[in-house]
Write a structure and sequence with these properties.
Helix content is about 40%, strand content about 10%. The protein has about 325 residues and is mostly helical. The chain has a 3-stranded antiparallel beta sheet, with helices on one face. It has a 3-stranded antiparallel beta sheet with strand order 4-5-6. A hairpin with an 8-residue loop joins strand 1 (about 15) and strand 2. It is elongated, with a radius of gyration of 24 Å. The termini are far apart.
C-alpha cells in the first residue's frame, strides 16, 4: 500500500474506519478543543468516502470554504437558541428569558457572515455595551455559546470568541454581609437544604446562579455564571455536605430563600453571600490576589498584580482555609 502523506498542522485528519464499509475513509475538521486530560474533543466528520483520495479532496475543499453555503451570525444564533430550548434538557422560563434578552444585544452582528467575524469585532461590541458588568457577562456567555455551537456544526474555521474578555470592572460592591452572629445561626440550622446552599455560597464566593451548573470535584468546585468560569478549593466547613445539596434548574430557590430568611429573622439577598465571602477573606487575612482570583475579579491594569497573579490550587486551599468560625 502506498504510504500516506502527513497532512499539514491545522488541516484536519483522515481516518480509515474499522470493519467492512462501502465508504471507510472519514474526513474530519482540525481539532479545536481538548478535554482536561489533554485528549481531543471529537468533531463531526465532514463526510465518509470510498477512497483516501476522495476524502483528501473533500477535506481540501472544506479548508477552502468550511461553510459551504455561508450563514450569517443571526441565522446561527437563531439555530443555537432553537437547539438549546427545544432539546432534551429543559430550562426554566426565567433562564430562557434571560438568555433571549441578552441575545437581543447582538443585533449589530446579525447580518455579518459568521465566519468573517474577528476577535476584534467581538471585543469592540462587548466594550461598547452600556450595561453593568452583570449584564455584559450574560451577553458574552451567549456569544461564546453561539460560536461553540457553530464550531460543533462545522460552520467556522476558528472560534473568535475564545479570546473575548470583559474589560468592565466589577460594579456589584453594594451589599450587606451576614454578621458573625448570623453565620453562627446558619450553622445551627445546617441540616436544612436551603441553609446549606446559603453556607455554600458564603464559603465559596460564587454568585447564586452558579450553583445550578457547579461541577463538584474531589476537593474543588468548578463553575461560574455569565461566561466567567473558575475553579476554587472547597472550604473544609462545607466539605461534609456540598455533594448532598438538592439543586436542580427548577429549584424554587427564591421562594425558599425568603421563607428561610423569615424563619431565621434575617434580611439578606442571595448576593449578600458573595459580599460575606469577601468580608471573611479580609477579616481572616486571605491575600488579596487569592481573594480576587477565587471571586473571579479582574485584576485590571495593575501590572504587578498581573505578573504575580499565579496561584496554585494548594496555595488557594491554604488561603481559603484561613477563614474560620
Amino acid at each position: 500500500m502506498r504510504k500516506l502523506h502527513r497532512l499539514p498542522n491545522g488541516f484536519g485528519s483522515i481516518k480509515k474506519l474499522s470493519g467492512v464499509r462501502r465508504k471507510p475513509w472519514g474526513a474530519y475538521p482540525p481539532t479545536i478543543e481538548y478535554h482536561q486530560n489533554g485528549n481531543p474533543v471529537a468533531r463531526k466528520a465532514i463526510g465518509y468516502y470510498e477512497t483516501y483520495q476522495d476524502a483528501l479532496k473533500a477535506l481540501t475543499e472544506w479548508n477552502a470554504n468550511p461553510l459551504g453555503d455561508s450563514a450569517t451570525f443571526g441565522e446561527v444564533l437563531e439555530a443555537f437558541l432553537d437547539a438549546k430550548f427545544n432539546g432534551v434538557k429543559k430550562y426554566s422560563k426565567g433562564t430562557e428569558k434571560t438568555i433571549r434578552g441578552a441575545a437581543k444585544n447582538l443585533e449589530p452582528l446579525s447580518r455579518k457572515m459568521i465566519d468573517s467575524i474577528s476577535p476584534n469585532d467581538l471585543q469592540r461590541l462587548v466594550d461598547s455595551l452600556p450595561h453593568k458588568r452583570a449584564g455584559v457577562e450574560n451577553i458574552v456567555s451567549v456569544i461564546k455559546q453561539t460560536f461553540d455551537y457553530a464550531d460543533r456544526e462545522n460552520l467556522i474555521r476558528k472560534n473568535p470568541a475564545r479570546f473575548l474578555k470583559i474589560n468592565k470592572p466589577e460594579d456589584d460592591e453594594h451589599g450587606i454581609p451576614f454578621s458573625a452572629e448570623e453565620i453562627e445561626k446558619l450553622w445551627e440550622h445546617q441540616t436544612e437544604n436551603t441553609v446549606r446552599i446559603i453556607l455554600s455560597l458564603i464559603y465559596t464566593g460564587f454568585r447564586v446562579g452558579a450553583i445550578f451548573s457547579w461541577e463538584i470535584r474531589k476537593e474543588t468546585i468548578y463553575g461560574g455564571v455569565k461566561g466567567v468560569k473558575r475553579e476554587i478549593p472547597i472550604h473544609p466547613y462545607i466539605q461534609p455536605f456540598i455533594r448532598k445539596l438538592k439543586i436542580t434548574s427548577e429549584t424554587p430557590l427564591r421562594r425558599e430563600w425568603k421563607k428561610t430568611m423569615k424563619a431565621l429573622g434575617m434580611n439578606h439577598t442571595p448576593h449578600d453571600c458573595r459580599h460575606t465571602f469577601s468580608w471573611l477573606c479580609d477579616t481572616y487575612g486571605v491575600d488579596q490576589i487569592s481573594k480576587h482570583l477565587m471571586m473571579g475579579h479582574s485584576l485590571g491594569k495593575d501590572v504587578e498584580s498581573q505578573v504575580y497573579s499565579h496561584r496554585t490550587m494548594e496555595q488557594l486551599k491554604a488561603e481559603i482555609s484561613k477563614i474560620c468560625r
